[in-house]
Amino acid sequence: MSLLSSVRPYLAREALGAFFVGVSSGFPYAMIGATLTTRLAQDGIDKKTITAFALAFLVYNLKVFWAWIVDSVRLPGIGRYGQRVSWLWFAGLLVIAAVVNLALVDPQASLQATIVAAVLVGMAGATYDIVIDAYRIETLQPHQLGVGAGMSQYGWRIGSAAAGALALVVAARSGWSMAYMTCAVFALPAMLTALWLGEPARRTVSVPRKGMAELWQSIAGPFQEFLRRSGAGLVLAFILVHKVGDTLANLTFRLLFNDMGYTNDEIAVYDVAFGFWAFLVGIFVGGVLYERQGLKHSVLLALVLMCLSNLSFAALAAVGHSNVGMAAAIGFENFASGYGGVVVVAYFSALCNLRFTATQYALISAAASVVGRLLTGTTAGGLIDAMGYVNFYLLTTLAAVPGILLFALMWRRGVVDEALGTAGKAVTTESRG
Questions:
Q1: Residue 370 belongs to what domain range?
Q2: Does 25 reside within a domain?
């Protein structure tokens, strides 16, 4: 009976909806991430150019600047079906069109066209994320937010992994253009979920006319509120640097695998499939330990695990081509990412003020990866060429240390608790953090 009562909340229609929209949220990221890296490497593009494509992810860091459009602008025609439903359909069509466009470009013929196509996928995917996050939060009841967040992460990983694996398998048999066009179907789950669940019951449409001063305050207000908190500077520094080493390493794994001679099928099995299950286990363990250990202990452990996971790739690079070694490295890295994804996202959610939840979470999540993406896009390929993979992954391990030290300092000074937003006070009490 205890097991059944634990599983039942995950089968609620709102929780299942969070899972399906998560699937669609994850796949555009894969299309311009590891999948595009493999495609470019197999087309003979040099490492510096390949890693520069990581700059396409910066579009996700800028989404906060047009999130207000998704909230406020009513789409003509389909807008009568609801603000969230209509934008889900529209953004989903944008993603499909952008992915098909990326499928039709030839990197060997025009890198410029490929860059533009990748950025367009990033813009469409980021817009889809804005709508999906809002739809998920407004569809779930307050007591379902925890379950919904977990289901959304499961969906995100499944969408990303399934699209990445499908792309590799189809590309090996029918070419990359067909692979990308096939993967465009992963935009559909969120669009169909909107048909199934309809407009969120908690969604209230009230968009009064505002002057420029009021519009500016609606944009600047969330920043100002956050920066007025005790220890805000330390927290912001932590947000910016905590994931630098992890991001710098993650976007280069496919380069390592390509140079070590792994086939598409081996990558699909040991990287995508094996990593997928390790990630799911990490999410489960993260949820359990967060509940038992509380916010501060679980976050610190996540930072340590993410730091150490980079060492496994230094070891793999030193050993050479090894399916067992690849499975072990990918397993550890994905377990750490899954665990960290639960507890760090919970912490970032706790930083939000309930008056600005959507805007502040978009700001925090964007800031959390911008430094790592900039470094990856501008230096990763050159560093690998200059120092080799072993030393590069040792460097990424060291790059993760400042985040650990900053969080420990925040804990010691009481900043972790003092800087929490109103959304985090109850989280801290419930989790004994």
A1: 217-433
A2: yes
